[in-house]
Amino acid sequence: MSEARDWLTEGLPHIWLPYTQMATATPPLAVVATQGARIRLGDGRELIDGISSWWTACHGYNHPHIRAAVEQQLATLPHVMFAGLVHEPALRLAQRLAALLPGDLERVFFTESGSVAVEVALKMAIQYWRNKGQEEKKRIVYFRHAYHGDTFATMALCDPEEGMHTLFAGTMPDQLMAELPTDESLRRAFDLLLETHAERLAAVIVEPLVQGAGGMKMHDAQTLAFIAEACTRHKVLLIADEIMTGFGRTGRMFACEEATQLTNTVPDIVCLSKALTGGTLPLAATVARRHVFEAFLSDDPSAALMHGPTYMANALACAAANASLDLFEPVHNSPRLAQVAAIEVRLSAELAPCRELAGIAAVRVKGAIGAVELSGDIDLKHLRLRFAELGVWVRPFGNVVYLMPPFIIAADELATLTAAVRKVLDERAAQL
């Protein structure tokens, strides 16, 4: 206990926390261990993790299979530069991702974070057209409520009214925002937008089925399929940002599969991260279809993709990702997608009573994602503190209280999470 206080009190004055006004911030909780779906604090308390550490720990914490794979890799080859050299964990992982993704999404470019994976996708899309002699095609269409990262190029693709990046308005590339085409009127408007700007558009980027940090907004597979078909008609590339939705979160291995099943359309580029390593090590991937990759093949050196993160394809992270993928296979007796389906049923039933409370705008569930949208004044600091008091780690943002638990969560742990959401929102409703 004294050691925990020492590193906490001595270290906090030197740390800068994310998305936090440090002048008024509530002190962060000190974590000393994790296991399964639980976070152990320095004061002895345990919290049930309702958000999988920003949506990464799909298998829970400290899974022995992933831990063993990382330990074995650490003993042989923790890292080597990925320029002029390759190693087995990365090549095996690339092959497996290509086999899992739909269509001919087969060329994998590894990075370390989701934002950079999107940056690489944007560079691929713009240079694809440049390499084909159409340099004017360099603008990107994104959607209202979108979030694609915090770097400068990705900030330009986030909803300008959500508030996260408004400070940087006017300093970023000017891109085109569209409404998600969820009805016939919006479909006509989206189709007209692409038709009007097609000669200047490189790509459309979408978070398939669920827009995450923009408020857990959800749309159906028909909407996603329409976007894909419109991109094909107007000769615009489609980028699927599966950083949040990939690896089972929506009920399929990848959310874009739902549109592929409807219309046989496949995104031209897919971005992956977060749950790629099961929440253990930083890793991301940008995966391109064959025709995108082939546009970079030339005798001209300038036609190559000029990007190369220092820790690209880190061997430890690739080993963790391979082990994480193992846990989706039946041979490991890990019915992950069945677990997601069961979580969806439980979230739907156990969050439904929230609809009857004052100050609730909507309740949405998709796969292992449950979101309760709030109306009226929202005291995020109070809500977060109250959840911790109830023994759960739930971190609302904007006007949304959401759950994205690890897939391995026990039924009683999930019940504790949903009961905490109902209790906290019932207390809030009583004050409105």
**Low-confidence segments, ≥5 residues, pLDDT <50?**
none
Q: What is the strand content?
A: 15-25%
Largest sheet: 7 strands, mixed
Please tally the helical runs, counting DSSP H or I stretches of 4 or more residues: 14
Strand order of the largest sheet: 4-12-11-10-7-5-6
Number of strands: 16
What is the CATH homologous superfamily assignment of the largest domain? Type I PLP-dependent aspartate aminotransferase-like (Major domain)
Mean pLDDT: 96
Give the overall form.
globular
Summarize the amount of helix as a percent range.
25-40%
Distance between the termini: 40 Å
CATH fold-level assignment of the largest domain: Aspartate Aminotransferase, domain 2
Instruction: Give the count of structural domains.
Output: 2
Structural class: alpha/beta
**CATH architectural type of the largest domain:** 3-Layer(aba) Sandwich
- Helix and strand string, N-terminal first? HEEEHHHEHEHEHEEEHEHEEHHHEEHEEH
* CATH class category label of the largest domain: Alpha Beta
- Rounded to an integer, what's the Rg over CA atoms? 22 Å
Please state the oligomeric state of the protein chains shown.
single chain
Question: What features would you describe in this structure?
Answer:
37% of the residues lie in helices and 17% in strands. The protein is of the alpha/beta class and 432 residues long. The protein has two domains: 158 residues, Aspartate Aminotransferase, domain 1, CATH 3.90.1150.10; 263 residues, Aspartate Aminotransferase, domain 2. It has a seven-stranded mixed beta sheet with strand order 4-12-11-10-7-5-6, sandwiched between helices. It starts with a helix and ends with a helix. The relative contact order is 0.15.
